[in-house]
From TrEMBL:
InterPro entries for the chain: HTH_MarR-typ, MarR/SlyA-like, WH-like_DNA-bd_sf, WH_DNA-bd_sf
Stretches assigned to the HTH marR-type domain: 11-141
Name of one Pfam family that matches: MarR_2
Protein name as it appears in the record: MarR family transcriptional regulator
PROSITE patterns for the chain: HTH_MARR_2
High-level lineage: Bacteria, Pseudomonadati, Pseudomonadota, Alphaproteobacteria, Hyphomicrobiales
PANTHER family: MARR-FAMILY TRANSCRIPTIONAL REGULATOR, TRANSCRIPTIONAL REGULATOR, MARR FAMILY
Amino acid sequence: MAEFDLFRFVPFRLNRLAAEVSAALSEEYQVRYGLDIPEWRVVATLGFRDDACSAQFIAQCTRTHKSTISRAVTGLLERKLIERVESSDDRRAFELRLSSKGKALYEELIPRLLSKERDILACLTAQERKQFAQALDKIEEALDLVQTQHAQKTSPY
């Protein structure tokens, strides 16, 4: 049997990094704005896009279970941070977009999160940050993850 070092195993390392980064960022959106992680994922996805999209797309894009996104959407609708709009593709379906209140929150929050990101990556040189971003791009592309705001509106599942 091959020697196994859990602390060198890339999936384990990525999971730990993601958990720590998520916790650091959640201080901004949870404490200041009362958003939990799934709600933040919905707001972030809608704020990043130019147009409305389905909850299914948000689940696919963020790799979050559909029921978790559904609960987040319900809470955000109640708080009037997002709104439903008629789908441009199917008049029987609805898509989601940020409300004006949600847009204001998003625009206020993004600079804070970008600052946190800079703090987290400050241990890397500019060249290392560039190489790290390129490596992440390659892995995401190999895994066929959504990498653009202009991706499909609906999920393939």
